[in-house]
């Protein structure tokens, strides 16, 4: 679990540093949650297609 937290932290730092995407606190929390599920899940990740807006 500690490794997953470090990977999420690094991902957020790199996204911000390289200005790939700007995340407000709500979107950052969603990304952290999604990354933790993928990194800690027992099955392979399944792609999700967003067909609407985030709001």
Describe this structure in words.
The protein has 55 residues and is mainly α. It has one domain (2-40). Helices cover 58% and strands 0% of the residues. The chain is built from 2 helices and no strands. Helix 1 packs across helix 2.
- Estimated helix fraction: 55-70%
Distance between the termini: 30 Å
Number of domains: 1
Q: Which secondary-structure class do the elements indicate?
A: mainly alpha
Q: What are the secondary-structure elements, in order, as H or E?
A: HH
Q: Please state roughly what percent of the residues sit in beta strands, choosing from under 5%, 5-15%, 15-25%, 25-35%, 35-45% or over 45%.
A: under 5%
Q: How can the largest sheet be summarized?
A: none
What sort of overall outline do the alpha carbons produce when their principal axes are compared? globular
In total, the number of strands is 0
Low-confidence stretches: none
Rg over C-alpha atoms, rounded to the nearest angstrom: 12 Å
Number of helices: 2
Mean pLDDT: 85
Question: Strands, helices and their partners?
Answer:
Layout: H1 2-17, H2 25-40
Helix pairs in contact: 1-2
Features:
55 residues; mainly alpha; globular
Quick rundown:
The chain has 55 residues and is mostly helical. It is built from 2 helices and no strands.
């Amino acid at each position: 679990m500690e490794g997953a937290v470090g990977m999420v932290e690094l991902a957020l730092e790199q996204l911000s540093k390289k200005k790939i995407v700007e995340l407000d606190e709500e979107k950052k929390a969603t990304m952290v949650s999604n990354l933790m599920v993928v990194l800690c899940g027992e099955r392979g990740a399944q792609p999700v297609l967003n067909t609407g807006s985030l709001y």
